[in-house]
Amino acid sequence: MLDDLGPTAASNLSTANTDLHHFYVTFYDEVGDRYLNGSQNSTQGYQSFILPWWRQVLWTVLFAGMVVVATVGNLVVIWIVLANKRMRSVTNYFLVNLSVADAMVSTLNVTFNFTYMLNSDWPFGHFYCKFCQFIAVLSISASVFTLMAISIDRYVAIMSPLRPRLGKRATLGIAAAIWAGSSVISSPNLIYFTTDSDVLPDGSARRVCFGEWPDGITTRSNLEYVYNVAFMVLTYFLPIMSMSYTYSRVGLELWGSQSIGECTQRQLDNVKSKRRVVKMMIVVVVIFAVCWLPFHVYFLVTSYYPDITNYAHIQEIYLAIYWLAMSNSMYNPIIYCWMNSKFRRGFKQFFWCCGAFGGGGLSRHRPFGADRLDRSMRSLSPSRKNGTIRISMHSTYNNTLVSSA
């Protein structure tokens, strides 16, 4: 689905003349019930999809901002986890996997596809036509499967707390399986995509990147339709259903169940910590569902009602839908920074090191994990709540303030 040139590839009242050696564009006159071959009207129709310069600038700013935020944010997330041992948990390893996929789609796909959609010309060569579409499906599949892995890991950890947790090797093995499976799903794009020259009646030419499936070119292939439907089911509807179930059960367990007897402070802190992680991941999943829903709806609607692609402003509608879907890659780092204090400290330290913040109040060597006060509080037995312990905690707090001043 990401491979097509949005509405500009199949709309504009155009169809492909596959009997010729080249990939020509033929415009159909609905009023006269005839094709306009070689007429000046076809060139004008093609040119009508070149947006005015000020709208091109507006869309360029929107896409450039999204690419920069997504790339920098996800690279910082990767650095925070890999550079600090306290952050190397199972969930955070999966978040690194998710950030790698999001960074890939923002750097290796979005810029090139946006340029293609904006100019209706593919200047990046035959190999990158294949590779760009392969990366698109690969990264999207890896992202959603990683979200599923996180939801299952949270489900097992909370619903079956006595079961052994995943180790580092098992986590890396699951990540490798995710990328292997995503590569298989994306492989048809690497096989069937190609480039050709589209010669217009006025003598000008443009380069096109399109899928040439065994039973026809893109938008005319039943195999492509089946592939796109399968891709949509595997990477949207089934994952959303699975994650809705797991997080619903986890939510009922964490917020709805009542413990028998009196809980210790350590148990209460553990439940609060799990709730924070689950709330963060629920927000990530909801944002994913909202961002990708219009894209899949657009695909379904245009598949059954292709005349919609003849709408005058369909190109900009598709650009908006495509931007929303791709912008999902920039929201996750923002969510981590907003809802997780450890990631928030990591982001502050990163930008402090880059000179974006002053050094006041932030130590270069301060760990991203729990601070010293939190560690000292957790080291105390939760059942000992007499005045002596409270004085000791207060003393620790004062010492911490003095040492950090």
Summarize the structure.
This protein is mainly alpha-helical and 405 residues long.
Commentary on this structure:
Helices cover 66% and strands 8% of the residues. The chain is mainly alpha-helical. It folds into 2 domains: 301 residues, Rhodopsin 7-helix transmembrane proteins (Rhopdopsin 7-helix transmembrane proteins, Up-down Bundle), CATH 1.20.1070.10; 34 residues, no CATH class. The strands form 2 sheets. A 3-stranded antiparallel beta sheet has the order 1-2-3, with helices on one face. Strands 4-5-6 form a 3-stranded antiparallel beta sheet. A hairpin with a 5-residue loop joins β4 and β5. α3 runs parallel beside α5 and α4 runs antiparallel to α7. It is globular, with a radius of gyration of 26 Å.
Structural class: mainly alpha
- Major sheet, described briefly? 3 strands, antiparallel
**Which percent range describes the beta-strand content?**
5-15%
| Cα-to-Cα separation, first versus last residue | 56 Å
Oligomeric status of the shown chains? single chain
Secondary-structure element order, as H and E? EEEHHHHHEEEHHHHHH
In CATH, the topology of the largest domain is named: Rhopdopsin 7-helix transmembrane proteins
What is the second-level CATH architecture of the largest domain? Answer: Up-down Bundle
Transmembrane segments: 57-82, 94-114, 134-152, 172-193, 225-247, 282-305, 317-339
Main location: membrane
Keywords: Cell membrane, G-protein coupled receptor, Membrane, Receptor, Transducer, Transmembrane, Transmembrane helix
Membrane topology: Multi-pass membrane protein
